[in-house]
Design a protein that fits this description.
Blueprint (H helix, E strand, L loop, with lengths): L2 H15 L17 H4 L10 H22 L3 H20 L2 E2 L22 E8 L2 E8 L2 E9 L1 H4 L4 H12 L3 E5 L8 E7 L4 E7 H4 L1 E7 L1 H5 L1 H4 L14 H5 L10 H6 L15
Antiparallel strand pairs: 1-2, 2-3, 3-4, 4-8, 5-6, 6-7, 7-8
Helix pairs in contact: 3-4
Length: about 280
């Protein structure tokens, strides 16, 4: 990638990650939330699916506020509100429980990020330039998986992607091996903090994107207890458990996750759906 193109990538990538968040180099005793913590926004580990849904719905409504307030046409306002409601409904309907029912998630890029019959579930949401997955175990948020569309990194190498993340989040450790038993080796960067564990994974060769995964260290440390139904050996993953144990406007890539995971059957989610 040419220097000018790389500069444009850094600007665009910074907008996706969130402006004004850079690596915190202050001492542990006087610094505030780290850049990784800030990247979560108002989300908090331990939230229920309903809390996460309401938070996402509130953000959607805020994004439409200006358009609604500016229009003086009743029909146009109704159209905008309908579109806003559709976005919220898509998030609500994306709720999926891993109760043993086979789905495309079992063989897609999320394989190894969850287990079946252990009270695990997810909510999926489409954002500008990303596909976000919020993972729950025992009804508590413990992981956010963010897949960046190819249009976001615009041909940047994984090294450049990792460099951009390290400029924002601080120095990471680079690793390379299979993340899921039986799969091809891949490379990733990882960060360890007291309140956030993170890894940036190179899924570009097989799936066409890079991703950033944030996890709650406290939940990760207890996964062995929480997951009483163990995954089959071929499905076991190398998640951040090992770390604890060891001490864009162009929408041409908008369907990237759909093309990878395919259409899935969604479960009714009384804890997510709002009461009428």
């Amino acid at each position: 990638m040419r220097r000018s193109s790389y500069g444009a990538f850094l600007v665009a990538f910074g907008l996706v990650l969130g402006a004004g968040v850079y690596a915190d180099t202050g001492s542990a005793s006087n610094r505030g939330p780290s850049a990784l913590e800030q990247s979560m926004g108002d989300l908090q580990w331990g939230w229920t699916p309903k809390q996460v849904y309401r938070h996402l719905k509130k953000n959607i409504e805020a994004s439409y506020h200006e358009a609604i307030s500016k229009t003086t046409d009743a029909i146009e306002e109704d159209r905008i509100r309908h579109k806003m409601a559709q976005e919220s409904a898509q998030i609500r309907d994306s709720y999926f429980e891993f109760d043993g029912t086979p789905s495309a998630y079992d063989s897609g890029y999320l394989k190894g990020e969850f287990t079946h019959r252990n009270g695990e579930s997810l909510i999926r949401v489409r954002t500008k330039g990303t596909q976000d997955y919020f993972f729950f175990i025992k009804e508590r948020l413990w992981k956010r998986y963010r897949a960046f569309d190819a249009s976001v990194f615009e041909g940047a190498t994984f090294a450049q992607f990792g460099s951009a993340l390290q400029q924002r989040y601080g120095k990471a450790k680079k690793k390379s091996r299979s993340l899921v038993a039986g799969s091809e080796p891949t490379q990733w960067y990882e960060w360890r903090e007291s309140r956030v564990l993170a890894r940036a994974v190179d899924n570009n060769e097989f799936y066409g994107f890079y991703c950033l995964i944030l996890e709650d260290p406290k939940t990760v440390a207890r996964l062995g207890q929480l997951r009483k139904n163990k995954a089959a050996p071929a499905e076991a993953s190398d998640t951040l458990v090992d770390m604890v144990a060891d001490e864009s406007d162009d929408d041409r890539h908008a369907d990237i996750a759909d093309r990878i995971t395919g259409e899935i059957r969604r479960h009714e989610a009384p804890d997510v759906a709002e009461k009428k």
